[in-house]
Amino acid sequence: MHLLSEKVNFQTEGEISIIDLTSEFEKLVLKSGIKNGILSANVIGSTGALTTIEYESRVLEDFRNLLHKLVPKGAGYKHDIIDSNAHSHLRASLIGPSLTINIHDGRMQLGTWQQPVFICLDVRSRSRKVAVTIIGE
Predict the structure, then answer these.
(1) Residues whose CB falls within 8 Å of the CB of residue 24, separated by 6 or more in sequence, listed in order
(2) CB 63 within 8 A of CB 18
(3) Gyration radius (Cα) of the chain, Å
(4) How far apart are the C-alpha atoms of 123 and 118, rounded to whole Å?
(5) Which domains does the chain have, with CATH numbers?
């Protein structure tokens, strides 16, 4: 059994910026030398999330609009008394902080139009980290 543990660092533009992590994850799978196993990733922070989506501008716009409708900014959330980003925490909780992708024959098992993405849900640009562990043989 082999293991690779790394962090992916990047800068975001702020509220609902979506970062395609496919190439970063592919580099780590290659670096690991693991042919069959799993890639596990998790956000370090409470206002970011991970999921997969087709990384196409209209789908991304639809996704942003959906988040605005589901958890609107400034809807009287109690946490806003502290720092006006309650909606950021709530959106992140709905999507989730982690993602697991199977690896087979040295490649992530993803659909043709499926890309792993980080979603920045905070109200400002930030330096972000995603912890990645790849385990297998």
Answers:
(1) 8
(2) yes
(3) 16
(4) 15
(5) 2-136 (2.60.120.460)
Q: Which amino acid would we find at residue 27?
A: K
Q: 40-60 as b/e, with b when 16 or more CB fall inside 10 Å?
A: ebbbebebbbbebbebeeeeb
Predicted confidence (pLDDT) per residue in 33-64, tens digit? 999 999 999 999 999 999 999 999 999 999 99
| Whole-Å CA distances, 124 to 47, 66, 84, 98, 104 | 11, 20, 11, 21, 37
Distance from C-alpha of 17 to C-alpha of 9, rounded to nearest angstrom: 15
Q: How many CB atoms lie within 10 A of CB 100?
A: 11
Rounded Cα distance, 18 and 15, in Å: 9
Is the model's pLDDT at 32 over the cut of 90?
A: yes
Measured CA to CA, the distance from residue 112 to residue 56 in angstroms comes to: 12
Among positive and negative, which fits the CA dihedral 98, 61, 71, 74? positive
- pTM recorded for the entire structure: 0.95
- Assess whether pLDDT exceeds 90 at residue 14: no
Please report where in the chains the tokens 């905070």 appear, as a residue.
122
